[in-house]
Amino acid sequence: MPEPVNQKRPYRSPKRAEAAATTRARIREAATGLFTEKGYTGTRMKEVAALAGVGERTLYDAFPTKAALFGHTLGVAIAGDEEPVAVPERPETLAIRDEPDPERAIGRTVDQTTDLLERAGDLIMVTVEAAGADPDMRASADAGAEATYGVHLALATALEERGALRPGLDARTAADTLYALASPHMHQLLRRHRSWTRDAYQAWLRRVLITELLRPH
């Protein structure tokens, strides 16, 4: 079959793409504040538009539903950017799993977890709090929990295979421990309710995970 002649490629203006990204960032910032303050059910799309300084038409063109807006806002907060690569498949996550030094693997896990929860922990808790009343939030909470546990289980399995887990501890119980101690619930309790500093939380989490999971030297 002959190649098509003079086939035009769609033109993408860098300035237009940059302006759209800036608008999405303003919308995300406004949505994050309102969802965190008022919850999912209590937040109205017109409030997000007003706070972001965009028209409602612009908001709905980008995000046709509140669920779509929340999903985008949460997804970018979790990942740290708009790249369509899930956290479990990102190079930094895979590198932690392959880290040969067990204590360093735990330390890198704590660093990544802390960064993620500082960005997204409050929004994750919005899904947890709204899960009982909204099926979209229930699906989001369940999917997030499953993905998180999968990351923890992969690390725990790698540690078990290296003989790094403390005696009597299997990979699944180690993953359960990671899942509980590094949870957004624990982050919320210590960082928000008890006003721990980020450094204090991070140091505590690293210390307790090393103690609970790893074979003593």
Search tags:
elongated, mainly alpha, 217 residues
Q: What order do the helices and strands come in, and which of them pair?
A:
Layout: H1 14-42, H2 45-52, H3 56-62, H4 66-79, H5 91-98, H6 102-130, H7 135-161, H8 171-181, H9 184-193, H10 198-213
Describe this structure in words.
By secondary structure, the chain is mainly alpha-helical. It contains 10 helices and no strands. It has helices at 14-42, 45-52, 56-62, 66-79, 91-98, 102-130, 135-161, 171-181, 184-193, 198-213. Helix 2 (45-52) packs across helix 3 (56-62), helix 5 (91-98) packs parallel to helix 7 and helix 6 (102-130) crosses helix 9 (184-193). The longest helix has 29 residues, at 14-42. The model has no long low-confidence stretch (mean pLDDT 92).
Summarize the model shown.
With 217 residues, the protein is mostly helical. The protein has helices at 14-42, 45-52, 56-62, 66-79, 91-98, 102-130, 135-161, 171-181, 184-193, 198-213.
Low-confidence stretches: none
Number of strands: 0
Order of helices and strands: HHHHHHHHHH
SS strand fraction = under 5%
